[in-house]
Predict the 3D structure of the following.
Amino acid sequence: MSLNSFGHLFRVTTWGESHGPALGATVDGCPPGIAVDEAMLQHWLDRRKPGQNKYTTQRREPDAVRILSGVFEGKTTGTPVQLMIENTDQRSKDYGDIAEKFRPGHADITYWQKYGIRDYRGGGRSSARETAARVAAGGLARAALAALVPGLSISGYMVAMGPHGIDRSRADAAEIERNPFWCPDAQAAADWAEYLDGLRKSGDSVGAVIEVTVRGAPAGLGAPVYGKLDTDLAAAMMSINAVKGVEIGDGMAAAALTGSENADEITMGPDGPVYNSNHAGGILGGISTGQDIVVRFAVKPTSSILTPRRTITRSGEDTTIVTKGRHDPCVGIRAVPVGEAMAACVLLDHVLLHRGQIGAAGGSIGPAR
Amino acid sequence: MSLNSFGHLFRVTTWGESHGPALGATVDGCPPGIAVDEAMLQHWLDRRKPGQNKYTTQRREPDAVRILSGVFEGKTTGTPVQLMIENTDQRSKDYGDIAEKFRPGHADITYWQKYGIRDYRGGGRSSARETAARVAAGGLARAALAALVPGLSISGYMVAMGPHGIDRSRADAAEIERNPFWCPDAQAAADWAEYLDGLRKSGDSVGAVIEVTVRGAPAGLGAPVYGKLDTDLAAAMMSINAVKGVEIGDGMAAAALTGSENADEITMGPDGPVYNSNHAGGILGGISTGQDIVVRFAVKPTSSILTPRRTITRSGEDTTIVTKGRHDPCVGIRAVPVGEAMAACVLLDHVLLHRGQIGAAGGSIGPAR
Amino acid sequence: MSLNSFGHLFRVTTWGESHGPALGATVDGCPPGIAVDEAMLQHWLDRRKPGQNKYTTQRREPDAVRILSGVFEGKTTGTPVQLMIENTDQRSKDYGDIAEKFRPGHADITYWQKYGIRDYRGGGRSSARETAARVAAGGLARAALAALVPGLSISGYMVAMGPHGIDRSRADAAEIERNPFWCPDAQAAADWAEYLDGLRKSGDSVGAVIEVTVRGAPAGLGAPVYGKLDTDLAAAMMSINAVKGVEIGDGMAAAALTGSENADEITMGPDGPVYNSNHAGGILGGISTGQDIVVRFAVKPTSSILTPRRTITRSGEDTTIVTKGRHDPCVGIRAVPVGEAMAACVLLDHVLLHRGQIGAAGGSIGPAR
Amino acid sequence: MSLNSFGHLFRVTTWGESHGPALGATVDGCPPGIAVDEAMLQHWLDRRKPGQNKYTTQRREPDAVRILSGVFEGKTTGTPVQLMIENTDQRSKDYGDIAEKFRPGHADITYWQKYGIRDYRGGGRSSARETAARVAAGGLARAALAALVPGLSISGYMVAMGPHGIDRSRADAAEIERNPFWCPDAQAAADWAEYLDGLRKSGDSVGAVIEVTVRGAPAGLGAPVYGKLDTDLAAAMMSINAVKGVEIGDGMAAAALTGSENADEITMGPDGPVYNSNHAGGILGGISTGQDIVVRFAVKPTSSILTPRRTITRSGEDTTIVTKGRHDPCVGIRAVPVGEAMAACVLLDHVLLHRGQIGAAGGSIGPAR
């Protein structure tokens, strides 16, 4: 069963462990004729790459992606695209201690209990390193979206680090690329830098909230009732390491609203329906409305920390653990490009699904023609 | 494509519209030899049934489920189980207005834009009535779980209505069945009754937060990295009508914690690992730990309200809409048994998957034997 | 897992047993806006219906199909279509003997060994009666194909009964509807009538070879390398009860040819490529060429016969069995409309897949434009 | 969509083109704890490797398989296993002519018509080279079967080359490994050598019939009605390049039998049911009986031949083609290990499915205990 796969028509299977020879993504169902090359994919991987500043793990890997199949003379052929990233900086010796002890809050213990065997080096398959393959696949999805849905854009950014949220009245998209946190609020970014520095020095870590906005998606994407656009986005984001919550539009806060508050009223504009608000996050009944699609997810703090925690060994003895090695004090930072990549894959998937199910357009709104 | 299906090995496909002849669930992959009959399923449907008190829609349907296949002499045979519920109280005349106008916050407009045709009567396929089929399937899943994992229990309850949350220090499981809101906090339930009465009279509606706890699930359930237990739970809950957010364990609040706070420390107990807290909601790396599994979701307020809202017609004219008919002022109430049912289906599915992938148990913890 | 389902985008799940309350097909993925009603489906079911002449089982059922969902005001809505056929003539008492004894050549013993429980009445799920659901789904697929691929036609016919094949030089499509065997060779049909009469009287049965030809399918359908058009056709036909072999084009005989004989040479015609022969059966590399698609399958003789055969009981005792009841002396006759239905479903599925994957057309042949 | 994948729980996705950097198989769902290394897989690849004798293509590739993931310290971990084979001897210049002309009987034209782009070098994705990935995956399946079903064996062999079949009365399993054709009849092998030599010299090619026998499979494998064991075997074999027909047991010949002839009578033996014949090929109702499972398939002659054939160019001009390069005069020879590999994958898949669906055993036959 493709339990390491996601997507309906654009189907991504990731493979590989943190400290094996390589990892990658096998992508089946990419339409033919899409212009793509390794440099285009590398652009997105470089955004996620660790070791770029003091706030992410100091593991240094080129994370160079290779296209092994499915592309001929610069274009996809409609056959599977194999994207491989070799692991080059593996330093296995750093991880000796966790072969025997389970890190609290980490998948160490559950992988052991499930499989009876685990590649403990660097977290093996449960390492955040697996997300590099997602970013590579997301780059391919972006290339296909650019060809199929011109004008669609996907932007991820951090809206809270630990207990410190951004001030949305100060948010400016142009800031996102200007700080190491992909934070749209320059003031918050400055505060976070100081906050995280303190945490890092104290050997602790912290969580974060990431938001991804998709602009320019047409109305009509999404397949009720179990392949809804929001259902697939929720699954995609929840599958990212350390994610504990997912929200669409107002998310959990929608529960506190009344029906009259929550209704995104509609008026008719020159180009179709205009919504006067976007509590729904661009999705009604699992189908896109044409508004901005807004998805948000919470990343818990890195569980590999220098602060000693009580735990047990594989042979059942009580002990404590201090996780050395190179770990991100806020793994949520690197989750930003991952969230974007997942959104890109899900959107492309639903563009293809819609085309298969519906062919051309669905119903139009306006005077009968 | 089974876009109206969920589950890997225990695969549920729901079908049917609010005002068609019938609706139901086609369940493929139920293990053979499970004792089940219509009365056992009816028990769960009766919990969800509308018209039971003044807080839910006054539509009165017996919602009687029939088993059309897959059960022989009181036991499942391993072949597909067809569960059908006939629609008897359809009063289509109530819905005349919404044939032409789109309700704000409702799937009316997106179904039209996607498909170019929609059964507008009572919301058609996007009606909350679809969830009756889920509850029937969930009843079957519960029967199978009772046979395969004795001791596992699933309990749903409401933890917030609109802005009013429960006080967890007052929570008492015994209260859940004693009020119409499945609320574990008797005081909150009393307050909600008054609050909802006011809303109902004013023609408005409100959202809610539901929590489902699974007790007694073994460690090892869940299939990383895209068939994780939390990923599947998130998708299952997000697929329910009107759900806008899903959380596992601490959920969105996990982002505000430090790594040392978030670590559920482990000590060795007489029967295996003991966790000193449960921020993780019973799932690490997508695999169950053996602790309580805790999933929470937010239901937005019903969009069919008596308060007038601005909208447009199918021919593109601005107008206002007042939705008469029989609607729930807090559709979240009826979402409680639906959330339980979805949890039951996902859990059973992962029990079967684990058995297929792993056979017997995975790794043990304790002195080498 | 949808092990009772087939199809990628047009996904058919059949459910139901021979002697349960009903059986049917849950069809997910039918495009919206397709004109269909019960009478259109009934047309195809009536062709398959037993009891029409002395060569098929005398079980008399109206086999009336009901559409329970997915169709509104005479058109599909893009939501699941539930097709139900109630079982009315069940005479369970006829089947008492086979509750304890396993019929040689029948699924009785393997269902028991697999599931440890079986609905023995009339073969339960393994009854040829399950194919009624396929024919209903095939009717829906034909309606969609008529809208999406005008000019496509599907014709099934019998080319051999037992050892007696047709003479292809005498074949005439107009004959197919004129005899109870869907035989294109009038002389063969007359011979078969006499032959089958003798077999029936002696309490024996016989096999058959069925061929299905699809005309008017465009080039480009089929998804290499494991969703090939021929792969899916082979699986579809092999899944029909009692089928033991499937051939595309020359089939098994292709093995005896040389490469120069087998090459279907190509010349350029006014409307595109013209093939001078069709050894390939209209499929190269798993993709349709635009020629006639030809698939053939062998149906073994009915295993329920009046001739005594040695067998064992469930408790392991040697015995003999004589299967009374109403059985087809040549179950292959009723397999003709079933083969057509399966071909219709597979073709529609690949039309939708192609549309989803490729969008409009693929590569053109001819002078650069 | 995983259209380049097969299998339910043991899911194999092959990727790669004949003349790209590499090809391989992404295998998801392999149980953990299976002992496997590259040498074990290489053993099976070496059997398929071209250039071993004058009867197969003279392309010389080491076809060295690398395990990139999913194996740790010599055992599978339950995570995806990536098997990669680099392409080293690509000689693209040999294939210049087929960039513009379509080979009759080859997928050249249909890939072009479908995708509008194709990697024409060596057939690209439609090359028989893709089957190397299947053989690697089949090696992994064999390793898992050895652990899970001790005593199960899989043997493929050729039973006809062109019009020349073996004499089954002379068949001897020990001969299979002694001649380049995997032929169990030494006399036939000698005749074929001479026959094929003549064909090769004349620049022609020929088809073949391959049979695969699985011994030692337990009763109860197979999932009716669309995941039947024979359905999955038929799809698996039909998906192999150049296969035009698939048979189970008596196959197409079953059509010529009467019910009394076809019934495999059953008596009770000391260890369970004993069948007095095996017309069914070990499968009844899609479920294994415990007898030998027998599947047979026809491979058409190689379409790349030196004999000139009429065809057209991409720009629509009539022409003739002579395919130079290194091609197998009887591609069926190399299909033998491929058929074995596909059988291994399908069998393992159904072993895992059965375990997931049924748990332990199904029904027993014998005196009540």
User: Anything to note?
Assistant: Chain A is about 25% helix and 20% strand. The mean pLDDT of chain A is 93. The radius of gyration of chain A is 21 Å. Chain A touches chain C through 17 residues (CB under 8 Å).
